[in-house]
Amino acid sequence: MLDPYRRILRLPGALAFSSAGLIARLPISMLSLGIVILVSARTGSYGLAGSISAAEVIAAAVVSPLQSRLTDRFGQARVMPATAGVFAVGVFALVVSVESGWSSPLPHLCAVVSGAAFPPIGANIRARWRAIVTERRMLDTAFAFEAVVDEMVFIIGPVLVTFLATQVDPLAGVASTAVLCVVGTLLLSRQRVTQPPVGGQGHSAALEIPLGWRVLAPLVLAAIGLGSLFGSTEVVTVAFAAEAGNASDAGWLLALWAAGSLLAGIITGAVTLERGPLHRLRLGSLALTIVMAPLTWAPSVLWVALLLFVAGFAISPTLVAAISLVERCVPAARLSEGITWVTSGLATGIAPGAAISGVVVDATSPSVAFAVPVVSGAFTVAVAWAMRVPVSPPPRYEPTPAPSG
Q1: Per-residue pLDDT for 170 more than 90?
Q2: Which stretches within 293-388 are classed as H helix?
Q3: What pTM was estimated for this model as a whole?
């Protein structure tokens, strides 16, 4: 079962760049939580903490496609170290602003700088896989492997930032994200052999090929629906656990959700996928929505645990299908930008999903509020089934690498 993974990880440089990507990606799951812990500890205001965290997330979602556009044009080795450096400056400025008690909106502006500068590591890693893998079957495995890495990021990151914030100091949790981003990004940038080539004959012209919004636009909408599903499920699960008498149960409930997705990601990469990515996106989003629906009448924490674990099995295959669809329908020279638009859609959907579900919890009950992720999933299903993929793929190009040095 693990042989497909052995094949892709034996490719020259694959294990090295994926490992560096894991380190560089950890701040994705750490910074927002670290900000909430730090700001609430120093000011006692969860409202202020939430608004600063939201500023960081929104800035990242808005600016990351532009970053990827620059990366596709100038190369990862030139763009990532610069943006990682700005991210570190923004993070440390944010720490100083909170520790020094600067008034709003200065902490928010620091959070905007850090969010806007965080490199789109996931898109860059997947672009590297696209550059070194020649077989379609192996590329599907590589994308599934990265989905597993994403789940590892969201399992390791929150535990790490919470440990640093509670056992060392609240500012340590936030400051560590700058260190991880810079170290991981520098390790990745040094690996130029696996970097998608830029420069040379045809590259500038390839960057002017239309991005393929006929597919990408509805795919971003579908990603927003998935993001809303993720954000609302987290909030409602916390509320359900608290209503049941132990809010700390939310931790292992959401861990089970992630574990189901991780296992599904491993299986997805190990089997031969006969269906195309659009078909898999449709079935995956439909399965996720159907399994989430019974949560609206789940009688106990154990039932919620079971349903979340099963629902998790639909997450990774759905996300892998979305990324595969981008890879097939977006020009190769603009792959990082195309993937980043989808991940930005996911991030964009999280905030409204969380906010709406919170309002429904306050007005009704956690059980009723589980309808919010169900509706979000149904929106994704509707968009996916309405999508149409062009018969002919976008133009490909084989760039001539620019001279080194």
Answers
A1: no
A2: 301-312, 315-329, 335-363, 366-369, 371-386
A3: 0.79
- Residue 155 pLDDT greater than 90, yes or no: no
User: Left (φ > 0), alpha (ψ -120 to 50) or beta: where does 365 sit?
Assistant: beta
pLDDT in tens, 69-90: 888 888 898 999 999 999 999 9
Cβ contact 82:135 at 8 Å: no
d(CA 31, CA 43): 18
| Helix, strand or coil, per DSSP, at residue 262 | helix
> Could you give the angle at which helices 170-189 and 76-99 cross, rounded to 10 degrees?
170
At 122, the amino acid letter reads: G
Q: HSE, CB side, 13 Å, CA atoms: give it for residue 267.
A: 13
Contact status, residue 314 vs residue 288, Cβ threshold 8 Å:
yes
DSSP 114-170: HHHHS--HHHHHHHHHHHH---HHHHHHHHHHHHHHHHHHHHHHHHHHHHHHHHT-H
Whole-angstrom Cα distance, residue 370 to residue 298? 10
The number of angstroms, rounded, from the C-alpha of 328 to the middle of its chain's C-alpha atoms is 20
Fold of domain 1-198: Growth Hormone; Chain: A; (1.20.1250)
Q: Tell me the CA distances in angstroms from 258 to 29, 87, 148, 298, 321, one per residue in order.
A: 13, 27, 10, 19, 18
- Domain residue ranges in the chain: 1-198, 205-388
Of 337, 288, 351, the residue nearest 314 (C-alpha): 288
CATH architecture of 205-388: Up-down Bundle (1.20)
Structure tokens at 191: 């690996």
